[in-house]
Design brief:
Layout (H helix, E strand, L loop, with lengths): L3 H12 L2 E3 L2 H8 L1 E7 L11 E6 L5 H11 L6 H10 L8 E7 L3 E6 L2 E6 L1 H6 L12 E7 L2 E8 L7 H10 L4 E5 L4 H11 L3 E3 L4 H14 L5 E6 L5 H6 L2 E5 L5 H6 L2 E3 L5 H17 L1
Parallel strand pairs: 2-9, 2-11, 9-10, 11-12, 12-13
Antiparallel strand pairs: 1-13, 3-8, 4-5, 5-6, 6-7, 7-8
């Protein structure tokens, strides 16, 4: 039978917007020693500002932003939301077809008769689009039409209000290692990692590489305690599944990620993770 204290723990957590999907996860949460965090949407805000629109090859800024908004119309990635917010008008997605969203790359779709690509350097290389790699501060979304480079949009990735404090609370709770994992560029990752004071970070990762990074942590901490992964649920369901405790933020996340997760945070605040660990430990103390 399950000791009564566990129900108190799960109920108490639920009252604070932390859904723990079973008593065993209170145990794994209580002994977390290492945590890997996804960056975009998890440690940084879901919707951020477009700070530059740089057209090439005859496009105007307005045309480039409109193109980006139309091709990103069907995506729930934070980048897509940012672009749509910057566009600020209802998006006409009626001509959008043959849509493919490629995790950690971007989007490939047809807009009317034109083939459009929107994504990072990796997507441009993959599709052999000739462009100059620009070294700008921010997350860059390149655009191409019918294999011709038409410019890029820069998005400023900002850390969430409680993120720095959240990292400190985890350290105070005895978490030995905090790692940040991202599909975004090295430059952006380095700046955010420094702001947050995480112990390590890895950038330009494909979803499978995030799984490998968590497996390395699992090995390293196998004798010391458990390993958690926290993601916003966009492109990270596999890594949520792989960690001892998979934590999903409920706000943006896909149904698949929320279903896979062991713990779901109803508010997308990273500080909820330390709170979850503390509740789990208190429950432990009562049960034992
Ligand atoms: P993170 O690991 O930081 O949460 P993702 O793995 O979701 O980020 O995405 C990694 C990178 O892939 C983004 O920084 C972006 O360059 C590119 N990307 C992903 N989805 C999109 C999209 N919808 N539009 C444009 N670029 C995208
Ligand atoms: Mg993400």
């Amino acid at each position: 039978s399950i000791p009564l204290g566990y129900f108190g723990g799960i109920g108490g957590a639920a009252k604070r917007g932390i859904l723990v999907k079973g008593a065993t996860f209170l145990d794994t949460l209580a002994s977390v020693k290492a945590i890997a965090f996804d960056k975009t949407g998890t440690l940084t805000k879901g919707v951020f500002k477009v700070v530059a629109i740089v057209p090439h090859n005859g496009f105007t800024q307005a045309e480039l932003l409109c193109l980006a908004a139309e091709v990103e119309a069907g995506s729930n990635h934070p980048i897509a939301q940012s672009i749509r917010a910057a566009y600020g008008q209802p998006v006409d997605a009626s001509t959008l077809s043959d849509y493919t969203e490629i995790a950690a790359h971007g989007i490939q779709a047809r807009l009317g008769q034109r083939w459009v690509l929107a994504g990072n350097d990796r997507l441009m290389h993959r599709e052999q689009i000739v462009h100059n790699t620009c070294h700008v501060e921010g997350t860059v979304v390149h655009l191409a039409v019918d294999q011709v480079y038409v410019g890029y949009v820069v998005i400023a990735d900002e850390v969430k209000e409680d993120a720095v404090e959240a990292m400190q609370a985890l350290k105070a709770a005895g978490v030995e290692h905090i790692m940040m994992l991202t599909g975004d560029s090295q430059a952006v990752a380095q700046r955010i990692a420094k702001t947050l004071g995480v112990d390590s970070y890895q950038a330009e990762l494909l979803p499978e590489a995030k799984v490998t990074a968590v497996e390395t942590l699992l090995q390293r901490f196998s004798k010391k305690g458990t390993v958690a992964f926290v993601g916003d649920g966009i492109n990270d369901a596999p890594v949520i599944a792989r960690a001892d405790v998979g934590i999903a933020m409920g706000g943006l996340g896909t149904d698949a990620a929320i279903e896979t997760a062991d713990v779901v945070l109803m508010t997308d605040a990273p500080s909820k993770v330390a709170e979850a660990i503390q509740i789990a430990r208190k429950t432990h103390a009562i049960v034992w």
